[in-house]
Structure formats: C-alpha cells, structure tokens
Amino acid sequence: MLEPIKENWRILLLVVVVIGSSVALFGPGFGPEPAPGESASEAQQGITNLQYGLDLAGGTRVRAPLSGYTATDVALDGDTPGAVAEAVAAELDNASTRDVGVVPEERAVEVTELSVTESQFRAAMDAAGYEYADVRSGVTQQTRDETMSVIQGKINEAGLSGGSVQQIQSITGEYFILVEVPGQGRQEVIDLLEERGTVRIDVAYPDGNGTAVQDGALIQDDFEEIGTAAQSDRGTGAYVPVTVRNTAADGSQSPAHAFQDAVAQRGFADAYQTQADRCGYNPETGAIEAVNGDRNPCLLLVVDGEVVNSFGMDPGLADSMAAGSWADTGNFRLTTGEFTEAQTISLNLRAGALPADLDISGEGTSSSISASQGENFRTYSLVIGVLSVFAVAGMVFLRYREPRVALPMIVTALAEVYALLGFAALLGYPLELAVIAGFIAVVGTGVDDLVIIADQVMSEGDVNSRTVFDSRFRQAFWVIGAAAATTIIAMSPLMVLSLGDLSGFAIFTVLGVLIGVLITRPAYGDILRRLLTVR
Amino acid sequence: MVAIEVPEVNYTDYSNRQLAAVPLAFLVLALAIIGGWVVATGAPANLGLEFTGGVELRVADDTNGDVQQQIQTAFDREPDSVRTIPGDDVVVVTFQAAQDDPEGLANDLQDQADAAGLTTTAVDQVSPSFASDTARTALFGVALAFLGMSVLVFALFRTFVPSLAVVASAFSDLVIPVAAMNLLGIQMTLGTIAALLMIIGYSVDSDILLNDSVLRRTGEFYESVSRAMRTGVTMTLTSIAAMIVMAVVASVFGIGLLRDIGIILAVGLCADLMNTYLMNVSLLRWYKFEGVAR
User: What pLDDT score does A194 carry?
Assistant: First the structure.
C-alpha cells in the first residue's frame, strides 16, 4: 500500500504543489484584500486571485526623497527639543519653528523648509551654538515614518484601494519614499500628496435657544507648533499639544491674543468650572445640547469644512484665557478620549501637510500608466508568455522527436510556471512586466535543466535498472544544482538593491529556480524513470 | 520533419590557438567598441531614460490624422525621440533631461499634449540625480553578481584553469551583448541590466556542464566534449528560441522591458555558444593535455 507512494513521492509532491497552486489561484479567501466598502469579488481582478501591479493594471508610482537637511550627532546640551528648534529657527530668516525638527533619540536636528540651503543651515546651527558632526541631505527617521503615515492616511482617506507607501534606501544611503497608487493618474496622485487640507478651529456657542458658530477662530497658519499625540499623564485620555503663535506684525493682533479674546467673550470660563462640565456639541444636528443642564460653548475642529471633533475646555485653561495671561505662551492641549483619536487630530491639524516635502521633480521619479494601457499590457504579456512556451516546446520536440521524453518535459516546465503563479497569488505579490520576464526566464532555465537530465539519463544506452538510473540522475543533478546556485547568486543583488521593478524579476527568477530544483526537476526524473526503465 | 542535430565538431583539426582566436577576436572587438563609446559619448553604452533622467510620454494614436505631425507641433521642446509602436496604436515620445531641469517638466509636457488634443496613456519621469544614482547602483549590482558567480565557480571546481575558463567566458558573454547593443542602437535600461545579470546565470550553465563532463566524468576528452556539447547546444538553442520569440512579440506590442531582455539574452547566448565551444574547449584541452602534465 505504502510502496507506490514511497516509489513516486517526487511526482506526488509535484501534484500536491500543483493542486495547492490551483487553490491559491482560484480558491476563495486567497484573493486581494478588499478595500473598505468593496466586496471580495469586486477586489478580484479577473477570474484568478492574481494581483496585478501598476504596469499591468494602470496606476501611478512616485519615488522621491524627502527634502531637507539633517545635522547629525548634535550636542543638545540637555536643552528641550522646543528650545533647540526655536534657537535654530531664530537664526534662519526663511524658516519658522515648525520647519525645524529636533529628535533627541537620534541626536539630530533637521530643517524641512525647501528654501533653506545646506550652508544656511550649517551657519544657523553654528550661530545657535550647537555642535554637530555633519550635515546630510534628507530628514530623520522619525520624520520619514511620520510622513509615511500621513501619506498612508491620505491614501486611505481618499478610498484608493491597493495604494501603498514604502521607505527604500538607495545604495548611497539616501532614503526614498515610494508611493504606489493603482488606477490613478500621475497628476491626481501628486495633487493628493501635495494637497494641504484646510483645518481650522471654530467656536460654537449657544445663541438664545439656537447655536451660533464663530468661524475660523484659529486657522492652520496660526499654529506655531503641532505636537504628536500623547497619552494623558493623569487618568485616561490622550491629547495633542499645540502652540499658537503669539507674535504678529506691528499694529495687528496676534492669533493667540485674538483666540484668547474670542474664548473669553463666549464665556468658556463661566461654563467650564469643574471637570464635569463637558461640551455637548452634536455633530449631526450642529447644535449644542445640554450636558448636566448647561449648554456650554465648544471648540470645533473643522477639516475641509467638516466638523471632525468637538472639545470643551479645561477649567484652568479657560480661566487663564479669561485673565488674558494664556497668550503669553500660547500653549494648549486638544484632549480626546482615545489615543487613536488624538493621533488623527494631530494628523488632521498638519492637514495633509507632509512633515517634509517630497522632492518629486528634483530628485524623484514618477511613472504612470493608464488603466487601458495596463490592460493591453496584460493581454500582450500573456501572448508573449504563451508564444515563448510554444517556441521552447517546438525546439524540444525537434530535438528529441520522442513524445515520451519531450511531452513530460513541457508539462513539467508548465507546472513550474503554474506553481510560481500559485506562489504569486498566495503571497499577494502583484504581477508586473518584470515578473512576467522572470516567468519566461524560468521556463528557459527549467527546460535547460530538464534537457540535462534527459540527455544524461539516456546517454549511455538503455536504462535497465533503477540503480543505473539513480546514479545517472545524481550526476545530472550536480550540474543542475551548480547552475541553479550561480543563477541565484547572480540574481541576489537585484533582490536587495533598490532598482525599481527589477526586484520582482529577480525574486521570481530565484523562486522559480528553487521550485525547479527542489520539486519539479526531481519529479521529471521520476517520470522519466518510469517511462524509460526497461523492466 | 526537420530535426536538430547537434553537429560533431572535429576539434583535432584545429590547434588551441586557432580555436581561441575567434572568440578572443570578438572579445577584443567588443571591448574596442565599448572603449570607443566611452571616448565618444562618455558612457560605455547608450544610456536610457532611467540612467540619464528625462520624461517619456506614451501618446495614444486615436486620431485619424497625423499624430507624428501633431507631436512635432505640440511640445515647446524638441522631443529627443519619437517611436511608433506598431501593435498598440501608441507613440512613445522621449525627452532627455535638460541641464536646467525645470520644475514639473512632466506636468508641462502632459499639459501641452492635452492642449494639442493628444491623449497620454502613460508618463514616466526620472530626475537626473536619481538617474545617476540608479546607474551607480546598477553597475554595482552587475559587479557584485559577477564576483559572486566567480567565487562560486572557483569553489565548485577548485582548479584554476577550468574555473578561469568559465569566468572568462562569462565575462565575454557580458561584454559582447553590450557592444552589440551599442551597434544596434539599443539603450541601456534597467531591463537590459536584468538581462545582463541573467546572462551571468544562464551562460555559466553550459560552461559548468562542459567542465563537469570533462573533469568529473570518466571518458576520453573529445568524447566528453561532444557529450556535453550535445546537451549544451540544445539547452542554449532552446533558450535562444524563447528569447527571440519574446523579443519579437514584445517589440510588436511595444513592451520595451521584455524586448530588451529578449534581445540581450539572445545575443548573449549566441556569444556563449561561441565562447563555450571554442574558447573554453581550447582552454580545457590545454589544461587536460599540457597543463596537468606540467
């Protein structure tokens, strides 16, 4: 009973792999991740679970570094990040505190304002009295991570399914942000990346029985600094620390003073006496509802004209505003119940403003393919693949003229490609033109190796025993193993170097060689043995 | 039906010098061409968009009028090349990066195309500094792959001359396609880099087969060579057939990446046939009959 299984386990393994690939290709549950609001069948492209990359589905890819300069190994002398940023910004005519980032963990100071040159930044660092090891172009790790999450947020918000953001490092150590958005044109994607949503803070207050709103009590430009979301130190909740600019050109009122006046005028100090006094703003009706019997004024966070959150005010803060002392510092905290909510608010306040700009035209690349062009490419590459297989099959038939050698050879090579497609579906790796080239390369190397096996096994007359077959097969396998190893070595630099689409080519060539050496070629050996062994 | 019969070469008729002369002549010629290119253009090959920077637009040929004509008038800048893709009603317009790379060049060009009533189906933009970075990375990648392959080959055979034969033949297999690209006017792109790396992997196969047959199997030298040749030539011809089909079909459909990979691999594999069965055989014969004895 077990004997046939033991005898033919290599063939059985190939059959199992082929069945597994079929499941991955056609079975439910292996399809692309559906975007929010999209059903699993809608997310599927065509009848298989295969996903297509930009080349084959249409879309835009933008790869660009973040512009800015970073001073490394800065001796911060124990100063707070805020103080350092202020000191450095003060030495730069064309940058404000918002444009200077300080990351104590990385001992780095960065400037993200486009117009600041490297020499200006060096001069400012010197003038501010902070010693540093060097200035490199680019920004800190923290800023890169933040930028990525902002971009990801924008992509999600715009409802673009399949969009992705990655960080890649080039050979010279420079970091690039790689954004891929399927189904969108170049201009749309760049607009999305560069768009700054409008964010403002309105004051809503009870007006008789109704609710009145004072628009734009604070607008985006009024913020000197927007902190990252932090967990509240007392009790639950989270907050975003912000600083409102309290300086203004001569004669006009600073945003902090104006805001302070507005808050005082709307009676926040009277309304918020204890922590129990809450804001009762109902975003659906736009009306302030009574909380504990009082209808308190509220601050509204408005993003792109839509109220995304409402806050009350800490009694202490309301008092200091009423007393007119708050504007001296301009600090306050936007508090929320949930940490994630605070994160969203922090992102919103930056309002699409990326922490650092993507330098697309200067040092980046972008490519974009329309959906119809992508679809054409998909058909064409299928045609190319099929014709290449025919070419290989034709050559093999011409050479051997013996179907029992040639036919299994072609079937095995096709099984190899099929297994690779299954892998691609399983991994959710998007197929690109480069990957298709990899597939064709795999058919080429695959058949080469099968030719080696067939020639070797049949070279010295009839195979009249299993031992003879096995010894010849082993000899053939040494060559195949060596050849596979060189291919893998040759391709491995491409897998890791950031050379665009080519990593897909390399990954699938190597994967194909591995599947070939470990699964399909041994199976072909078994098939050939059964067909050739003279009993 | 036609059948492929791998011819039996009577190696005994030729001396080692005679055998090696042809591939060496090709290698020298190829190196001379590449050297000439460096002197004339400053680069070893015609660098494509990815390595020089610039913008490539794909314009749909959906009008019945003369698209070529329209393209000539549509843009403020003179396109560096305009290619029509026969199978796909598309015209590819390339602009090399200007010295004073203006901001948002791709946008301007796309706008100009739109204004002229042309439909752009794809836009590629590469900035010059990114491009030079890519060129460095690509060169580094090819060098690394070649080095890795050499080390592996020496580790596999552990004899100097036969290993050297494999490495030398692989080197020549790389150089000849690059020279051929220059002569055929094919640009060096990321696709061709991939193809060059693939050659390192592919071409070594037949060399390994030959070395294995001569060094590790029993049998007389010429018998071993002809045995390896029967298999090796079949292998290489099969691959060449696949690559030629890929190159031809891909150029009809205007898929540059696949076309480039196909052409380069086909040329490289042809070079490999020559290098393996002329240069390697002569080196191995010298090693077998004279080198070992010394």
Answer: 75
Q: Quick one: pLDDT at residue A37? A: 47
How far apart are the C-alpha atoms of A202 and A216, rounded to whole Å?
A: 5
A454: closest chain B residue by CA: B231
Binned at pLDDT 50, 70 and 90, residue B268 comes out as very high
What residue ranges do the domains of chain A occupy?
Answer: 2-53+370-532, 59-63+143-195+357-365, 69-137, 200-351
CATH number at A59-63+143-195+357-365: 3.30.70
> Do A69-137 and A59-63+143-195+357-365 fall under one CATH topology?
yes
Please count the CA atoms within 13 angstroms of the CA of B104 that sit on its side-chain side. 10
How confident is residue B93, by pLDDT bands cut at 50, 70 and 90? Answer: confident
Which CATH number describes the domain made up of A69-137? Answer: 3.30.70
Interface of B with A in 250-289 (CB under 8 A): 250, 253, 255, 257-258, 261, 265
| Residue of chain A nearest B217, judged by CA positions | A475
Q: Is B126 on the interface with A (CB under 8 A)?
A: yes
Examine the pLDDT at B106 and tell me if it is beyond 70.
no
Q: For residue range A317-344, list pLDDT tens digits in order.
A: 888 888 888 888 888 877 766 776 676 6
Q: Where would I find the H helices in chain B?
A: 16-41, 49-52, 67-74, 105-115, 128-157, 160-184, 190-211, 221-253, 256-274, 281-286
On whether the CB atoms of residues A411 and A404 are closer than 8 A, the answer is no
pLDDT tens digit sequence for A369-419: 777 778 888 888 888 888 888 888 888 888 888 887 888 888 888 888 889
Q: Which one-letter DSSP state was computed for residue B280? A: I
Length of chain B equals 294
Which of B95, B246, B263, B269 best tests the A interface by mutation, with the highest count of A CBs <10 A? B246
Name the minimum distance, in Å, from the CA of A422 to any CA of chain B.
22
Model confidence, pTM:
0.70
Classify domain A2-53+370-532 at the CATH class level: mainly alpha
CB A197 within 8 A of CB A219: no
The pLDDT score that the predictor gives to residue B31 is 93
CA A397 to chain centre: 47
Say which amino acid occupies A472: R
- Sketch out chain B's domains with CATH numbers: 16-42+130-291 (1.20.1640.10), 54-126 (3.30.70)
Q: Which residue type is seen at A128?
A: A
Q: pLDDT digits over A83-120, tens only?
A: 888 888 888 877 777 778 888 888 888 888 778 888 88
List chain B residues with CB under 8 Å of A392.
Answer: 238, 241-242
ipTM over 0.90: no
d(CA B190, CA B168): 24
The two tokens of residue A252 are 């006009």
